[in-house]
């Protein structure tokens, strides 16, 4: 088959190729020839552009207004996720939690490293460039170590249909709860979602009120989540309710809180 | 085109403006491919998100804005259609009805040229010279990526008839489009 020599056949094959009705072995043979013959390739591209115009000729229809709201939410959630990732710079807050987590230790180590570098610089000026580089590497590794979240607790909160609605993780290095909304639920503008720890044999304790974003963080101490087997989220008046009163609205989502062993 | 450049610079207002300008058109396209309002809305959502992420690559495609957007929406719509076909074996049942409906329409040229690029205008002129059923079978073959056999089965027409309509339709289009080239 030499379609490049038969203009009519070439046009017919290229049209069927672009439309998608040229199938199987015939399609593969045509593609092979198109790779070798610029004339054939050009005809294929020309027809692809032509039939693609069919996309532009379909009658318009009115999508539901909430489609834009969903797009906007997703676009904003994406922006926030990127912002949160960029923000994971070293935080100054720390609490005594074992020598490995001690910021002072790592600062000390950093300082010691720096002293070594300084000493080396004084003693061996020839190695200055190399040591500068090493010093920067040590500082960068330290920064990364401090910035990496240390997630020790995880919970997936489900709705009453057992569909996941909110993912919760607790980062013991930064004393931070991170929440990610994974379902489609969005509270009304005059209501707030509130996160509760459900300790065994005691009243629920508020862990904080959720802002309406898809991704958000709440400060919490490890005491507030350790020994807590489950979490719940209730629908409350805007701004939430005081912790001692307990949830006043319906519990929308709940699930077990699991301490990671790995 | 300026809007797409602004979207590439993360301008949310530009995305909204593009949406207001093009969503009805693109929703109509997706609706024609997937045949369900709910899924067409899902496709629309995925498509604008893709535009938001990939607007920076648009310039390199050298295509008119609506042509670029149309390709994104068709490709997303076909993905959606294939996912659904994989999920549901009785898919062909509800498609049959929507497909045969369009064949019965006898409006001379029901296609919509709002926002159409120059190339699409030319195609529109040429499609106007086709018989209604030729135009519809060609549109369906492309929009839903159907083979001769699939079209014949779903439209309950003999395979030979479908092949002839498509071939004659494409021949006419070729002669007509050659004048615009």
Automatic annotation (TrEMBL), chain A:
<dbReference type="GO" id="GO:0006417">
    <property type="term" value="P:regulation of translation"/>
</dbReference>
<protein>
    <recommendedName>
        <fullName>Anti-sigma K factor RskA C-terminal domain-containing protein</fullName>
    </recommendedName>
</protein>
<dbReference type="GO" id="GO:0016989">
    <property type="term" value="F:sigma factor antagonist activity"/>
</dbReference>
<feature type="domain" description="Anti-sigma K factor RskA C-terminal">
    <location>
        <begin position="116"/>
        <end position="251"/>
    </location>
</feature>
<dbReference type="GO" id="GO:0005886">
    <property type="term" value="C:plasma membrane"/>
</dbReference>
<dbReference type="Pfam" id="PF10099">
    <property type="entry name" value="RskA_C"/>
</dbReference>
<dbReference type="InterPro" id="IPR018764">
    <property type="entry name" value="RskA_C"/>
</dbReference>
<dbReference type="InterPro" id="IPR051474">
    <property type="entry name" value="Anti-sigma-K/W_factor"/>
</dbReference>
């Amino acid at each position: 088959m030499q379609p490049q020599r038969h203009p009519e056949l070439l046009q017919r094959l290229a049209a069927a190729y672009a439309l998608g009705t040229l199938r199987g072995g015939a399609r593969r043979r045509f593609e092979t020839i198109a790779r070798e013959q610029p004339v054939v390739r050009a005809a294929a591209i020309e027809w692809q552009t032509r039939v693609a115009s069919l996309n532009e000729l379909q009658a318009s229809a009115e999508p539901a207004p909430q489609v834009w709201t969903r797009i906007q939410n997703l676009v904003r959630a994406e922006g926030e996720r990127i912002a949160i990732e960029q923000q994971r710079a070293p935080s100054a807050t720390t609490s005594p939690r074992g020598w490995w987590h001690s910021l002072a230790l790592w600062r000390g180590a950093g300082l010691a490293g720096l002293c070594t570098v300084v000493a080396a610089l004084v003693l061996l000026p020839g190695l200055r460039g190399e040591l500068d580089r090493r010093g920067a590497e040590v500082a960068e590794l330290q920064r990364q170590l401090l910035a990496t979240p240390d997630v020790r607790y995880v919970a997936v909160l489900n709705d009453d249909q057992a569909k996941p609605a909110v993912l919760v993780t607790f980062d013991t290095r930064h004393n931070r709860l991170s929440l990610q909304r994974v379902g489609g639920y969005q509270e009304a503008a005059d209501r707030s979602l509130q996160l509760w720890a459900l300790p065994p044999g005691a009243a629920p304790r508020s862990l904080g009120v959720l802002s309406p974003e898809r991704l958000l963080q709440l400060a919490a101490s490890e005491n507030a989540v350790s020994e807590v087997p489950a979490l719940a989220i209730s629908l409350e008046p805007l701004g939430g309710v005081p912790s001692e009163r307990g949830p006043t609205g319906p519990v929308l989502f709940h699930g077990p809180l699991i301490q990671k062993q790995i | 085109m300026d809007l797409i450049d602004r979207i590439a610079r993360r301008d949310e207002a530009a995305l909204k403006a593009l949406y207001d300008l093009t969503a009805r058109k693109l929703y109509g396209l997706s609706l024609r491919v997937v045949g369900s309002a709910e899924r067409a809305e899902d496709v629309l959502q995925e498509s604008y998100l893709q535009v938001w992420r990939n607007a920076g690559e648009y310039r390199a495609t050298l295509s008119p804005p609506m042509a670029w957007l149309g390709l994104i929406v068709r490709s997303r719509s076909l993905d959606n259609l294939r996912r659904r076909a994989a999920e549901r074996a009785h898919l062909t049942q509800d498609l049959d009805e929507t497909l045969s409906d369009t064949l019965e329409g006898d409006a001379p040229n029901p296609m919509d040229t709002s926002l159409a690029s120059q190339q699409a205008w030319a195609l529109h002129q040429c499609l106007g010279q086709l018989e209604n059923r030729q135009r519809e079978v060609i549109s369906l073959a492309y929009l839903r990526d159907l083979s001769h056999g699939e079209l014949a089965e779903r439209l309950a027409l003999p395979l030979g008839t479908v092949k002839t309509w498509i071939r004659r339709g494409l021949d006419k289009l070729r002669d007509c489009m050659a004048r615009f080239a």
